[in-house]
Design goal:
- A seven-stranded parallel sheet has the order 3-2-1-4-5-6-7, sandwiched between helices.
- Helix 3 runs parallel beside helix 4 and helix 4 packs parallel to helix 5.
- Strand 5, helix 5 and strand 6 form a beta-alpha-beta unit.
- The chain has a single domain, classed as Rossmann fold, CATH 3.40.50.720.
- With 235 residues, the protein is an alpha/beta fold.
- Helices cover 43% and strands 15% of the residues.
- The protein is built from six helices and seven strands, in the order E-H-E-H-E-H-E-H-E-H-E-H-E.
- The radius of gyration is 17 Å and the shape is globular.
């Protein structure tokens, strides 16, 4: 059976770094993206590196109908899928304090980062169980840090972390041949944080390579919260 991976939000940023380095390590890749043009541009970059690109799937995590359609397409076209990487997300409004956050913005952020992510995970879990696969969520610690802490984003990721913990426990309780774990890349310069580049930040290339190494390490990580580069707090 081929090693097939689907990565949400993989036409740019950390998602592209992850899918690139998984592809370079022998995975057949399926991109998840919202825009056809951006997906095709990313696919061309991957093919230029001789990566085996199976295709791309349109998915908008804020739209549960889109998630359902994407899951149906994956089940129909990519029956060997054995790895789901939940990477896509939005930051919420970074320009305001938590107590000034608009409820609309908080809801939109949670709809994408938690509800949408749970929906695609739920929809693909039967296929991943069948293929003895894995689910990897790209997230952040549940507690706020003093450097970058948009409230809606942190709250949505805390919910996602809780999801991973509960699902991992139940996979083990029910003795199911699938695992789920969480990876915090650490401070990374991306569009999501306005290309913030401070001491201790890493680039997408470094994070993508480290993620691929972790996924390919042959170890069991069910239920773990793994920090590639922990945030170093100043005194």
């Amino acid at each position: 059976m081929e090693k097939v991976v689907f990565v949400t939000g993989s036409n740019k940023g950390i998602g592209f770094g992850i899918i690139k380095h998984l592809g370079l390590s022998g995975w057949r890749v399926v991109l998840g993206a919202r825009d056809k043009g951006r997906a095709e541009a990313a696919i061309q970059k991957l093919k230029d590196l001789r990566i085996d690109v199976a295709g791309w799937v349109k998915i908008e995590l804020a739209d549960l109908n889109s998630v359902e359609t994407a899951a149906a397409e994956i089940n129909a076209k990519y029956g060997d899928l054995s790895l789901l990487v939940n990477n896509a997300g939005i930051p919420g409004d970074m320009s305001v304090a938590s107590f000034d956050s608009e409820l609309k913005d908080v809801k939109e952020t949670i709809d994408v980062n938690y509800i949408g992510t749970f929906a695609i995970t739920k929809a693909l879990t039967p296929l991943l169980i069948k293929n003895k696969g894995r689910i990897v969520n790209v997230t952040v610690p549940s507690e706020a840090n003093p450097y970058w802490h948009p409230m809606a984003y942190v709250a949505s990721k805390a919910a996602q972390n809780a999801m991973v913990g509960v699902m991992a426990m139940e996979f083990e309780q029910k003795d199911l041949p699938v695992e789920i774990f969480t990876v915090h890349p650490g401070p990374t310069t991306t569009d999501l944080n306005g290309n913030m580049d401070l001491p201790g930040f890493h680039n997408i290339e470094t994070i993508g390579e480290k993620m691929a190494e972790l996924i390919n390490d042959g170890k069991k990580h069910n239920g773990e919260f793994i920090e590639l580069y922990p945030i170093v707090k100043e005194d």
